[in-house]
Structure formats: C-alpha cells, structure tokens
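FORM 12-B: Structure-to-Sequence Request
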C-alpha cells in the first residue's frame, strides 16, 4: 500500500508542530498543508485518510489533473482544501477559483488578473501576498518596502481577499537568517491587518525549517518531504 507509514509520519509531525508553537509563545492555530507535487492522486487520498484536510500543489496543470482524477473520491466528498503554492502565470488566473487559497500573489500583474477573475465570477479569490524578505534574485514576491503601498492598493480590489502573507527562506540559511525572514513576514502581515485586510494567515516553513517558522508565528506550514519522503 502506497504511503502506508503516512499516519505515523503525520502524528510525529503534529507533535513537533505543537512543541514548536509552545516554544514560540504566539498561541496560533496551525494548519498542516501536505505538499503533493510530483506524487500521484493517491498521495492526496492518503493525506486525507491520515487526517490532513489541506493539500498544496505547485503547478496549476498538475493540480487540475489531480482534482479531476479525484472528483468522485472520499477526499473530495469530504471537502479537502486545495492550496496553490507555486508561481502562477497571469494567463492562468482564470483557474484560481479552483483553489481554497492561493499562496503566491507575487506581482502587480497577477493581482490585477486575480481581481478581474474574482469580480467576474462574483467569488473573490482568497490569496496570500508572497514576500521576498531575503531579497533573493531567484525568487518572486514583493519586497518589504512594497508592503504598505500594496496594502493600500489592494483595498480597492473587490475580487481579491488578502488572507495573509507567504514567504520562503533561503535554503540552508543559518537560524538567525531564518528568524529574520520569518519575523519580516510576520511584520508585513501586521501592515495588511492595519490596512483593514483579514490577514490572519502566515504561510511559511517547509520540511527543513518549519519548526523555526512556527516559533515565529506561522499558521500554515507546507510540508512534503517530511511526510512523503524524498522525491525521486
């Protein structure tokens, strides 16, 4: 049976999550997002059976294919929530309503496209603003200096609901740098909240750094390898 050890892995991860939240002292409610990219639909089904209600996909087409394959599944009938956590091309914004939460609102063009889709469908796109706190040239996202004007601009977007922010820390960064990046995202979320957005979510932390992210206040952790093993 595929992923037969997943329930045990999930239990171990949830224990680590609880311990990290206690250490951090923020008292936040945390949701575990199982990242199923490169795995088949069976990974989504296994996650659901292991008690995970949120799954994340990086690529739009891969996500849509899995959603179609699982349309009559126990997970879909139960209301599993799909998260889009990767880069989105502007011309694919029309599919954003297929997702409970889009983590990668990373540029003005996508903001405009998402807003238009939300207005046209009458169902605002629930999204997180992607931040590039570390200033990495290889990653997208807004710089911290852009947050305040963006928060004001988004107040006029009727087709987008800003639910919070997302960030990624540099791979293999030292603990001090991880904490700087995650704290920067937390500060940015506060800017959106002060501007009147319902920005409660803080999506940060992956398999290698999620415990530090939780100590810094993460409410959503995106975990793949620690749950499903290394990808081939």
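FORM 12-B RESPONSE
SEQUENCE OUT:
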């Amino acid at each position: 049976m595929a992923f037969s050890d997943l329930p045990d892995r999930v239990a171990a991860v949830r224990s680590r999550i609880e311990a990290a939240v206690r250490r951090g002292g923020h008292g936040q409610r945390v949701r575990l997002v199982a990242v199923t990219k490169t795995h088949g639909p069976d990974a989504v089904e296994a996650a659901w059976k292991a008690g995970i209600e949120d799954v994340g996909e990086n690529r739009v087409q891969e996500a849509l294919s899995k959603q179609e394959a699982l349309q009559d599944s126990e997970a879909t009938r139960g209301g599993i929530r799909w998260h889009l956590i990767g880069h989105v091309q502007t011309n694919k914004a029309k599919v954003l309503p297929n997702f409970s939460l889009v983590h990668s609102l990373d540029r003005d063009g996508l903001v405009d496209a998402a807003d238009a889709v939300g207005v046209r469908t009458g169902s605002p796109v629930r999204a997180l603003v992607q931040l590039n706190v570390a200033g990495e040239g290889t990653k997208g996202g807004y710089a911290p200096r852009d947050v305040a004007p963006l928060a004001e601009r988004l107040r006029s977007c009727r087709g987008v609901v800003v639910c919070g922010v997302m960030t990624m820390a540099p791979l293999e960064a030292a603990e001090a740098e991880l904490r700087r990046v995650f704290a920067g995202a937390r500060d940015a979320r506060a800017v959106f909240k002060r501007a009147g957005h319902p920005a409660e979510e803080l999506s940060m932390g992956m398999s290698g750094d999620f415990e530090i992210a939780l100590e810094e206040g993460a409410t959503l952790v995106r975990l793949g390898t620690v749950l499903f093993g290394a990808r081939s």
